[in-house]
Amino acid sequence: MEPTQFKPVDCLHFINGQFVSSLDGKTFDNINPSTEQVLGTVAEGGAAEIHLAVKAAKKALKGPWMKMGANERVAILRKVGDLILARQDQLAALESMDTGKPIWLSGSIDIPRSAYNFHFFSDYIRTITTETTQMDNIALNYAVRSPLGVIGLINPWNLPLLLLTWKLAPALAAGNTVVMKPAELTPMTATVLAEICRDAGIPDGVVNLVHGFGPNSAGAALVEHPDVNAISFTGETSTGKVIMASASKTLKRLSYELGGKNPNIIFADSNMDEVIETTLKSSFINQGEVCLCGSRIYVERSAYQGFLDKFVAKSRELVVGDPFEPTTKVGALISEEHYERVMGYIELAVEEGGTILLGGKRPEGLDKGYYLEPTIITGLNRDCRVVQEEIFGPVVTVIPFDSEDDLLDQVNDTQYGLSATVWTNDLRRAHRVAGQIEAGIVWVNTWFLRDLRTPFGGVKQSGIGREGGLHSFEFYSELKNICIKL
To answer: Has 257 been annotated as catalytic?
Structure first.
């Protein structure tokens, strides 16, 4: 795909079925992280725009969306998915411009999965049942599911459209209305998604979009608004804590998918070629800017050096560069601020006694853009900040282990608990180790393989609640029990 085939879009708010500017006319620049050039302007919203969006969403709760039958709602939501696929090339290009990720990644994973989120949850509406309980011959109890109300969706910048649709689709399927606040760094596909929702036939006011920043701005106003019934947030743990404090004032329901420092555990009996192939992805795909990336690699000591030699050699072959070049495997980090943050951790690794086996610097010949070579670090102990803290870049640490007990002690010694990967051909060991890891999802001999019916979420400071299948509908709906005396 030629990068000039699709043009960047200027981003307005979408409120009550209309694209509108900010009331005070404020805007900010949208920067392409791979070129450092301005892509366009974004309307900068705040409390006033959030209030208008929430007002429209609250009014729409009593409109045609609430009265619509399940079959009609299914048809509209499926059409949203169809229209995403119809504009797949454009959306992929915009996503790569916004994020700096390779175009093959946007086109083959992010956008198709975004469409599938709508197809999946539209179909899932038909499968949901509620409980019925008879109290001997005294009474009959049955549960009725209803929409929760106005939902605030706050989205991250690493998988902008994929994660936004992961929230929006079940929220709408459950009959709610929404106000979306996408990450300020990646506004374009969210803007197009609002247009797609309108074109698919979603009534005015059901889907609203306000661009802007988080603290003391649009994000804070959305969280604090008394007419917002719930907040679904994906992002940093520190931001999640701020949201929780603000949301407590109105007792909002919260769903969190937060940070991760995920272990990738490799036993010596694993199929090492398969391990290397998948570990390249779980370490460096999307520039390591994936909450599920396995950034802490633990290798059984007898296989440690052999793994390290192959892993370094294969990582060296990964092409870093222009997201629109088909050979590119690693694109640009999201922003200058984030680039400096990741570089700070690499400098810290050396201070903490680590050895940079590969990377740790800007690739030669790439003077513009926030590019960083895949970085592999050894020689750090479990207490080092680089091992303990989420870096969110193409940076991994590799540590040997000698026994299961020592391994599990290290793996669980973290504030996070989002995901983990275990590589072994010993079935009993796989069950034993997976069962003792403190994480919301554990993959065995695979990574990033998801069935959308299954529960997804983190433990400890990696999240609250679960998403996926019925778990999403439990969050986005309210159950009422009706008791009838017989």
So the answer is: yes
